[in-house]
Amino acid sequence: MSSSTSYTPSKVPFEHYAPQYRCCCNSVHVRQGTQIIGVIQTVCAVFALIVFLFSSHVDAVWSILETASVFGEIVVITLLFVAIKKENPRFLLPYLVYEVC
């Protein structure tokens, strides 16, 4: 009696570089595109914070709103990078909601 075991995979391997997972005119992977967007958004947030901190004429209400907006943006961008690191798309939802609003 010979026992032959045949290997049948339960899943097909995930194709990371399939065309449907590419963005920016099919030039980069979605993960890399998300990283680029996150870096650009971080640079813009830092620039906005610097401009806000060094502005001389600021209204009290405006300063509270601007501070809350910048800190909210920092939290959302942090969650964007957490989503990339953990490969969990749920962490992308706050970024999408923030950008829509």
TrEMBL record:
Keywords: Membrane, Transmembrane, Transmembrane helix. The chain crosses the membrane at residues 36-54, 60-84. This is Uncharacterized protein. It comes from Panagrolaimus superbus.
